[in-house]
Backbone:
């Protein structure tokens, strides 16, 4: 990865914005800083204002691990698209959504059976409908919490897709689309020729891997040197600076 705020990064940013791309962003750790309690996460007012101005000019999407209704009230602006549950929740296919919800029922049963153990370990269960997250940031012993989660993963009743994040393990049905599928579908849906996507975690890597060469992908944070993103930013603070720069460039190239 190359740091974005360089002459090369500026040239790439200018080039893609001239093409009127879809602008797609993860939420936690990208637009909003990671916080101890997920319910406290919000986008800053300045960043939300910039995103709102960008959304008036280009298609903007939030593609998040959160449930759609959970994230909407945390944005401070209205994007054209919101996709939740790591790409699984887009609101377009109610019948398909119900199948994805039901696919997680064996996990829900298991979590109810092990509720006392989960509570004793300090593991927070977040059921988003089309995905389930087990948060262990508040666990007194993270190693013990992870051991319990891995024990659950080995249960013979489960046939799910699981993937780690920042102090969380996520579960979706095996047929659930991921963020790469979601962003590709949004590009086609809005008629854009390309996309700019920014994310910070393991569940954003499928987008980085699948992105065509003419997209622009940005990883927020240096925690994964092997990330397949093209460019790097240090933190959501720098993401706010990027939004400001993008707005300046887009305003300059607005059709007269």
Residues:
């Amino acid at each position: 990865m190359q740091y974005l705020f360089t002459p090369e990064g500026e040239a790439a940013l200018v080039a893609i914005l001239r093409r009127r791309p879809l602008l797609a962003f993860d939420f936690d750790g990208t637009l909003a800083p990671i916080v101890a309690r997920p319910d406290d996460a919000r986008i800053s007012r300045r960043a939300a204002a910039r995103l709102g101005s960008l959304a008036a000019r280009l298609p903007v999407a939030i593609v998040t691990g959160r449930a759609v209704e959970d994230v909407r009230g945390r944005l401070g602006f209205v994007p054209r698209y919101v996709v939740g549950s790591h790409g699984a929740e887009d609101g377009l296919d109610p019948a398909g959504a119900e199948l994805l919800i039901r696919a997680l029922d064996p996990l829900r049963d298991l979590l109810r059976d092990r509720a006392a153990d989960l509570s004793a370990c300090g593991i927070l269960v977040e059921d988003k409908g089309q995905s389930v997250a087990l948060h262990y940031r508040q666990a007194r012993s993270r190693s013990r919490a992870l051991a319990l989660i891995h024990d659950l993963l080995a249960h013979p009743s489960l046939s799910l897709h699981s993937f780690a994040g920042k102090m969380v393990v996520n579960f979706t049905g095996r047929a659930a689309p991921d963020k790469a599928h979601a962003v590709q579908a949004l590009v086609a849906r809005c008629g854009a020729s390309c996309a700019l996507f920014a994310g910070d975690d393991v569940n954003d890597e499928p987008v980085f891997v699948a992105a065509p060469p003419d997209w622009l992908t940005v990883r927020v944070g240096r925690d994964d040197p092997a990330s397949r993103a093209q460019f790097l930013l240090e933190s959501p603070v720098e993401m706010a600076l990027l939004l400001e720069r993008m707005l300046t460039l887009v305003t300059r190239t607005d059709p007269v």
In short: Residues 236-252 form the longest helix (17 residues). The radius of gyration is 19 Å. The longest strand covers residues 168-173.
